[in-house]
# Entry
Amino acid sequence: RYVVGWMVAHRESAALAELRRIAADKWPEVLECLGSYLVYAKKQYGVEPDLFSFNEPDGGVRVKFNPEEHRDAIKRIGAHFASLGLKTKMLLADTCHARGTHTYALPTANDPEALRYVGAISFHSWGGAKPEEYAAWADLADRLKLPLLVAELGVDAWAWRGAAYRTFHYALREVQMYQELILHARPRSTMQWEFTADYGIVNEERDKERKVVRLVPTTRFWFVKHFCNLTPPKAEVLTTNSDNPKVLLTAFRGEGPVYTLHIANLGAARPVTIAGLPAGVKSLRAVVTSESDSFRELPAVAVEDGAIKVQLPRQSLLTLTTVPVDSGQ
# Structure
């Protein structure tokens, strides 16, 4: 992810991002560096990455490519990996954000040779996007028959500089983003940014010697727990709709079958009716997180004639699921 000086072209008058372009005469060394690293990992440790990408290449975060250079890099690196007998494919795009950036992937998408080396398509969600902009990524992934990944799921790319990401308001924005991504981008997988110190979802309590003695979950921790622990693994996303823009509903069906509904209420408390549940579902486990509740277990909700009526607390996430309490997820 980090590029040392010997790889890049230096031009005195160039902007910082332009200084991060790989020099034309350095490509043989770059390929040898990447390939030898992966071959060593395979031989020494028995591991082979599924995908390789330069991080956010559209913005020049460490390495800068324009769309055509990105296509050419995919062909160069992909062919080199293949010649070494590596299974590692290339990650297409992996852009800084989703707002109109699907076009960055088009030169590669329109090149059959380049597509031979692509294993998935990706964007980062910083700053969010309109439904139609998310949908453009979904449509492109469908056209290419490739899994779509949100390789960095986050709201504000600069929030790590302060404490805003620890607030309830930020947590609720993140819930809204989760729901909008599922509804409109339809990704195969997302990666929460992040479970480590930057954008941490827990607070650290320290003693007088500054040693960490306790981790205290934030609201973001509990919201993320809804999606991670209560969504069935390898689930199919079901089609849903809502007649209120402040209420976002997503639904999943896993093996079993196991069902989960995530209901984000972005506004005032309100009653809701949800219809169209499968005939075999008679009751649903209910878990809620809000400004005053943290993954609180509620009484089970009865299903009558494929419908339920529930009260949504203000600015909350209510999950209704057949995933059992002791599922071990």
Notes: Helices lie at 27-45, 67-83, 106-109, 112-115, 131-144, 168-185, 219-230.
